[in-house]
Amino acid sequence: MLIPMIPEIGHFALIVALLMATVQAILPLAGTATRRPLWMAYARPMAAGQFLFLVVAYACLTASFLLDDFSVATVADNSNSMLPWYYKASAVWGNHEGSVLLWSLILGAWTFAVSRFSRELPRDMLARVLGVMGLVSTGFLAFVLITSNPFARLRPNPPADGADLNPLLQDFGLIIHPPMLYMGYVGFSVVFAFAIAALLGGRLDAAWTRWARPWTNVAWAFLSVGIALGSWWAYYELGWGGWWFWDPVENASLLPWLAGTALIHSLAVTEKRGAFKSWTVLLAISTFSLSLLGTFLVRSGVLTSVHAFANDPSRGLFILALLGLTVGASLLLFALRAPRVSHQVGFTWLSRDALLLINNILLVIMTVTVLLGTVYPLILDALGLGKISVGPPYFNALFVPLTVILCVFMGLGPLAHWKRTEGRALLRRVWLAGAVALVVAALAPLAYGGEWNLQVSLGLAAALWVVLPLVRDLWEKSRHRDGRLAGLRRLSLAHWGMVVGHLGLAVTIVGVTVVSNYAVERNVRMAVGDTARVAGYTFTMTELGSRRGPNYVADAAHIEVRRGDDARAFVMTPEKRLYIARGMPMTDVALRPGLFRDLYVAMGEDLEDGSWAMRIQYKPFVRWLWLGGLLMAAGGILAVVDRRYRRAATARDPERPAREVTA
Amino acid sequence: MKRRLLLLLPLLAFLALGGFLYQGLSMNPFERDSALMADPFPAFELTTLEDPSRTVDESLLRGEVTLVNVWGEWCPTCKQEMPQLLDLAERGVRLVGVDYKDTREKGRAFLAEFGNPFEVNVFDPDGDLGFELGVYGAPETFLVDAEGVIRYHHTGYIKPEDVREVILPEVERWRD
């Protein structure tokens, strides 16, 4: 009988994966140092083996959840026999132990992918890249096995049933948000490994950036989707209609995203122009370091957050040591090996190079702003200067103006030329866009909300200023003797990636601006037959009943909604659920989504005389927030699909001799 | 040489951050200010949220066991905590709010929307009282006995089950 042994098989597979990761870390790196091709050749098979055993371990944990093996502590604490199977499968990562296992599995998958798709890399480069990824993997697998074993058994008396998954997590959001986010976090380990490999090899030319760019774009796209999903999940699941709380854990995901955004742009400059070499390496190290920092902040319990996992001081210390070793060693290597002489690649202050540099600096300032706001309470406390909390007022006061400034330069960047741009020529191409943006942005609040609104105008102007020059540029670029369509088709996918990505940011900005200024919230007391009017809609409660779900009981209301005097009505059914195993009440929001507005009804308190406190919200343009996030991600992916990359990767450096450069 | 030092800068910055993170590990944010336990409630003199011309001080908390809740309109968790506070008020517990780092309009709108379990709300726009209390974030709740001495401190959200299991027993304990 193998079934009772599933957790042990998983545990064993995890140990084998750790051993393979160790070999993958040590032998190839030692091989490049001593020039032994045989040792270097260990990298690829070990990457494949490690991934295989991680899959086995992960499958075993999933099987334990699906088979309700409550003798496994993780399963007993986070699952229940009544839980639907898809939540059982995603409960695997709804807890600390399982989620670090998922983290490791994804790292294994990225490593395997690099080993498959980078056959054209010089042998020593590939050995170094996979070696560095092996080092990271060794650290994390040791962390899982030593402090967070997901297969630990509860013996001799396993509980008859599990404590159930936290009801907040019993949602589609849990199924999809963490895997996307981790794909992003962990994906940045690839560009990190390339940067470290370049530093180790002393070959800081543009070649490593060309190989690393597609990986970075993909990781960034995943992270964008992950963050957008997280925001969307918070919006409908926490029950209050907010979409960003500047919570430490949200910030932890935003930090690598901001640094990663700077990185994908700086990689472009380094590849195309050979400039900003040290800066790009530093950004590559920083981006992955911030991913690791996020992991530390979430799992060590140093900051209070709605996301915090159960804490254990030994875990915090282990991750901090891991963080210290990885980041400290990388930055030390950077200090020792980064090019001693800065390369003078000439460009004037009005050029695409300069504009990208300015935007890079702005993005780094934004990163530092968020980082400081997140750890500031910790620093003050450690210095004995008192305890404070940093809330949305701080973040909004700094982040919003910085974003507007960023947009100013974003509007110019794509139209400027590399190296130098004629100021007057640039002005001629953008003045119309600027004028249209200002006029439309000034008048739009008047048309939409009925009065002037500076905040809305500012947000819309920024968004339009990002988009309109791009439109003008497309118009000019599409001139072609076979007609405009042929002209547009001629543009490279990488260019379209940039256009779509920038458009995504503009769409998000419009969403943020409109929903922050025009959302309507109303708390009303409602009994059967009562009607409330919110933002031109009438909400009538027609029915109040109770319902039984698989692992909860619920009070449910039927709300008939009409727009204005429209005869057609639709029904919204908010619920107040009580999850049986944990005795925890949960609000299940009724949402009527739309491209230009969401209607949002949540049941509050039972007011005893048969009426309920109901919270009704009208959220204009809220979908644009996440739509923009998806567009940005799509832009990142489009740029990767561009054929130029695959050709570039194969055509250049066909069999460059493995040459060591001693620094 | 100068450039070499410049290149070392990121490492130094990271080491400093690492030091703070290490210190942070030994401080549990949930138990930070046990130092105030059994101390008198810090002195303050602030206006009330309801009436800008009415000033209150620590004597407000004498004479009856009082639950002091630090909240703010900007704090999403506070919204989720309001039903529990309303429940406590209904069960006869005296509650005083501290509207922390907020504006008067927003604070009032919050109470109008989510209900007002508080006898009175101390308006603390600059976080002075919060600083004295060692408030790390909102919500936080302090139990003050009839002599104005802090007897219990709850960091973070009061869960529905905490009302019966934690808060009410503590209130009863200090009422005698």
What does this structure look like?
The complex is a heterodimer of chains A (about 675) and B (about 180). With about 675 residues, chain A is α+β, with helices and mostly antiparallel strands. Among the domains of chain A are: about 170 residues; about 100 residues, no CATH class. Chain A is about 65% helix and about 10% strand. In chain A, strand 4 and strand 5 form a beta hairpin. Chain A starts with 5 loop residues before the first helix and ends in a 12-residue tail after the last helix. The C terminus of chain A is likely disordered. By secondary structure, chain B is an alpha/beta fold. Chain B has a single domain, classed as Glutaredoxin, CATH 3.40.30. Chain B has a five-stranded mixed β-sheet. The longest helix of chain B has 24 residues. The radius of gyration of chain B is 19 Å and the shape is elongated. Chains A and B meet through helix 11, helix 12 and helix 13 of A and helix 1 and helix 2 of B.
Overall pLDDT score of chain B: 83
Q: Any guess at the CATH architecture of chain B?
A: 3-Layer(aba) Sandwich
Number of domains as seen in the coordinates of chain B: 1
Biggest sheet statistics of chain A: 6 strands, antiparallel
Query: What is the assigned CATH homologous superfamily of chain B?
Result: Glutaredoxin
**Low-pLDDT runs of chain B:** 29-34
Mean pLDDT of chain A: 87
Order of helical and strand elements of chain B: HEEEHEHEHEEH
Low-confidence stretches of chain A: 648-663
Based on CA atoms alone, the radius of gyration of chain A comes out at 27 Å
